[in-house]
Amino acid sequence: MTLPTLFARIGVAALSAACLAPVLHAQSPAPGYHDGRALRAAFDNLARQHPRLVSVSTVGTSAGGRPLTLVRLGSASDEERPALLIIANAHGPHVVGSEVALRVTERLAAAYASDTTVRSALERSAIYLLPRANPDAAEAMFTRPLMESIRNQERVDDDHDGAFEEDGPEDLDGDGVIAMMRVEDPAGDWLADSADARLMRKGDRSKGDRGRFRMFTEGRDNDGDEKWNEDPAGGVNVGDNFSYDYPDFGEASGPHTMSAAETRAIGQVMVDHPGIAAIYVLGPEDNLIKAWEGKALPTEGTRPGTSAGGPLRAILKDDEPWMAEVARRFRDITGIKAGAEVPAWGGDPLSWAYFHVGRWAFGSSVWSASTSTDEVDEKNDEVDGVPVEKADSTKADSARAGGRAGRGGGGDDKKKDPLEAQRKAIKWLDRYAPESVIAWHAIDHPDFPGQVVELGGFRPYALTNPPAAMLDTIAAGQAEFVKELVSLLPAVSIRKVRVEALGSGLFRIRAEIANDGYLPSSTEVGIRLRMPRPVRVQLAVPDGATIVGGRRQDLLEPLPGSGAGVEHTWLVRGSAGSRVTLTAQSPVTGSATQTITLR
Amino acid sequence: MRRSYRVAAAFALAYFAASVAPDALIAQQGSLAALGAPTNPKVVITWDRYYDHATLGELARKLEAAHPDRCRVSSIGKSIEGRDLWLITVTDFRTGAADAKPAMYIDGNIHSNEVQGSEIALYTAWWLCEMAGQVPAVDSLLAHKTFYIVPTINPDGRDNFLKQPNNPNSPRSGLGERDNDNDGELNEDGYDDLDGDGHITSMRRRDPNGRWITSPEDPRYMVRALPDQPGEWEMLGAEGRDNDGDGRVNEDGEGFYDPNRNWPWRWQPQYVQGGSDAYALSLPETRAVVDFVMSHENIAGAQSYHNSGGMILRGPGMRQDEFRPQDVRVFDRIGEIGEQILPGYRYMVVWKDLYTVWGGELDWFYGSRGVVTFSNELWSDFGYFQKETRRDRYDSDEMRFDRLLLLGEAFVPWKAVDHPEYGPIEVGGYKKQYTRAIPAFLLPAEAHRNMAFTLYHADQMPRVEVDSVTVRALGNGLSEVTAIIANRRIIPTHTQQDLEHHITRPDYVTLTGRQVLAGFRVTDPLQNVAVEQRRNPERIEVDNVAGMATETVRWIVQGSGAITVSVDSRKGGVHSVRR
Prior knowledge:
The complex is a heterodimer of chains A (599) and B (579). Chain A is α+β, with helices and mostly antiparallel strands. Among the domains of chain A are: 26-155 and 236-370 and 399-412 and 474-487, Aminopeptidase, CATH 3.40.630; 492-597, Immunoglobulin-like (Sandwich). In chain A, 22% of the residues lie in helices and 22% in strands. Chain A contains 13 helices and 22 strands. Chain A has helices at residues 3-9, 36-49, 96-111, 116-124, 135-138, 261-272, 320-334, 349-355, 380-383, 399-403, 419-432, 471-487, 524-529; strands at residues 54-61, 67-73, 83-88, 126-130, 180-184, 190-192, 200-202, 213-217, 276-282, 294-295, 315-316, 360-364, 437-443, 453-458, 492-503, 506-515, 536-540, 546-549, 553-555, 565-573, 579-586, 590-597. The longest helix of chain A has 17 residues, at 471-487. Chain B is elongated. Chain B folds into 3 domains: 2-160 and 259-379 and 439-459, Aminopeptidase; 179-254 and 388-430, no CATH class; 464-578, Sandwich (Immunoglobulin-like). In chain B, the strands form 6 sheets. Chain B has an 8-stranded mixed beta sheet with strand order 1-2-4-3-9-12-10-11, sandwiched between helices. In chain B, strands 17-18-23-20-21 form a 5-stranded antiparallel beta sheet, with no helix packed on it. Chain B has helices at residues 2-18, 22-29, 53-66, 116-131, 136-144, 155-163, 284-294, 325-341, 350-354, 361-369, 382-385, 397-405, 443-459, 496-501, and strands at 71-78, 84-90, 103-108, 146-150, 202-206, 212-214, 222-224, 233-238, 299-307, 311-314, 346-349, 372-378, 391-392, 395-396, 411-419, 423-430, 464-475, 478-487, 507-512, 515-524, 529-532, 539-542, 550-558, 564-569, 573-578. Chain B is 26% helix and 27% strand. In chain B, a hairpin with a 3-residue loop joins strand 24 (564-569) and strand 25 (573-578). Chain B is of the alpha+beta class and 579 residues long. At the A-B interface, helix 6 and helix 13 of A face helix 10 of B.
């Protein structure tokens, strides 16, 4: 693993138990967070408490043999109704996503009995959750030594030297944490930040910066190749393995797209549950703080999104206003206005959800230490002075964002000082989770005899996973948003039914098929994808009656949202008083039926 | 190199002597063997038919039983309907493990209706096994190379094509059920064999307002009326009816997805690439091949057989992708030889000369694995009369060939049937074995030429050898050992794509027998520039041995005694020299 990547990903979860309210496992290295077993048990428990509302199944197995859990929340069991899919923790270190997914489920299940909005939403629709899409990687948060892992347990020869997993990190000082490691060396590129000497900044020699340190993750060069920790255990980050703008040969992105069993299982979930109309991804990619910008396709030349033009590079213009409105509601409901704004960097589930499965796709990064304003009102001047801080500490300084420049990362602001976010984060952590900042301390390192070697930096997970005491509050806002989102799903209806008798047993039937939900029945990209399925309108007539004009069955163009409708007309020959049945149905809109008497 | 060639040749001769002498054969069989075929095959296969999946498996097992040292049969996975994807591994198992030799991967029939690729693949396995001992070059090939042959990677589609009513183009898809017309039903309205003859032909209805007439040259042949000419017939499409009463005919038959658009290199969704299916690698057959190739890094060449059009195709499939220029030179040379071996075939680049393909198999092999891969489109109109095709208003080479060489067997004569929606109509047209599949008497020739092209390709996979080892005393008990490693073939041990993306580990050159104090890669033998490898100096890592080129390594060693230098290349094989 390259240094800046790891450096950027160092975060913390190990927090002082004292400040945490509900401690689930006294022994857990990450109190308040759920390891794989505990998470599954919590969902199983919910299913037992709410047998008609919550069900839990296994839709795949991780490389490490852990179950990939799919949870369904909804009071009707059939598939043919609109659904929201929540994908959490596909990016290994984003464990907070799993915690939110669990708490959202708990809250909605509990509210079902008393909250009429929740009740009607869960009667009409369903919510599917993949609460831990990268179960192997997440387990690292519950293992000692503590290190962030993005990888599932597939064996991969990361440095292509013919040996597998021969050089991972080690806990050299025995503190149970894989920290950052700096080695004093004038050949190094790194120096201490002038604003906060605990932070490390990559020098720019053209500006006269003289590097003082080489940076590594904590560990030894186990195989003597003069690289440190370049081939750790594990293989593929599920969150980097999806097919839109997939990073070929990227770090932990897998040998090719959809190589991981976990990723493919998620692809299959979309096939098996055609009612999924929208996808909400809890992960580093975020398009709710700042909504995706659409782009009109060129009217001449080779157009993106075609065989000759290749992939779409931006969302389609017609989808933009709907997604922007949902993002606006998200900010209003949750109060989250700043945080990670990685629009999508390729290989991730969020861009896949829109571009490759054509669904309404929303992503929230949930929390970041650099932008957290929780419980820091008195310190606003320090932490919250800048209106909306765009750089995310987990990405802004990362080789990942930089290494993929020009891929999916797109709009990342390159001019910003990448350390700004870390400076904010460290202030917040100093005050609310001081264990999350490890002071640099010297060790003897056998690989660097006679050199000063120090360990320190942010503890793993701390930058993107909040102290567990905050999870309930965070989840409360997220649950409100999910409640809103599920109520925005498309909903087909039949209205303005009129029958005219034209004489001699001939009747004209007119009806409007409408979408009473907020969201259109398909995105524009979904129309091109021919997914999801369109609304099917069928008119069933009794024996003896015939349809002489209009079609017995029709597939509709997608219906815009917020009550838009389209009129249909049939001519039916039949006896007065007989009854015909009109049905409009699709998996993503649900169904509507009316019985119409000919008269 | 010369020594090892002599070894191979001597070995071949020894084997030859042990088998039946040719003169004896003439005496036994009362015939003189024509060249290019096994004189005394242990397994007799007739190459005048298309074998179903079960029979392909049986024939493979017979080959295995008859040639236990050269042929092994296994399965690399199962199809959607549970059929095995048979793998025939052909090599000389006595000269080394199959997985340690440079290997050629061959498959066929990815598209259900493109059946003859399986026969070409099976012919290759059969011919190699049966010709061993008869032609020294075959022995040498099997001594140094491995063939992984999967005759069909789409056995469900194959059996459907052979056994169900179909036309030459159906089905292209595999048999996973899909909702083609998006009405919520799966495969509810496919073709219907209205006359029960096992072929899906065309439907026509007599209609004075129709715009079609029959050809005066061949009354079976339907021709559009001229703009000012009255018509006699209305054409109603492929044989079928409206099974689901939605007012459309044949709109949701077998499949549909395209198994050759489902591969995880530049996979794109439906709006960019039709038929790519719900997600990359959604198909178990694709996954089985991918898993097999991922776990066999010795695969250095690959060939996929399709039909039709007479093409030797290489990627990339799309304008937006690029093959590295160093690799293109290799493809070009093999393609050029291919055009000689295969008259009527053209060496082409998929996106430039054919059409754009995203998520295709050959692009995955090259892009993701760095493997030199071709896809042949077997058979073309050229085959009818061995010249460029001629199509005039009232006739075509297809019709002429059918009349003159097949005596009309290729065409189902028009006959009257009662159509449930259209009333009295006629059905007729080409049988499914015509136009894309190959007529019987030409099949062996097509098989042999395509095999020969693939054998050339296979022979050009890298073959590394320790070319020379020289020892120079340095005094103090120290010696300098210099070894030259040669690749005797066109294809490098790492294509440029492989090198740039670190797909395959470096080649290892190892010295044993003395204590190694230091080791070097000699980057410029002329100027004697060397780069020290401090870690594991006894095993020097060489990034690549280019085609028909050498790499030099050097050690400083201590002591005396015999030295062994070995090279171990994932895609170039293993070889050692003792001195």
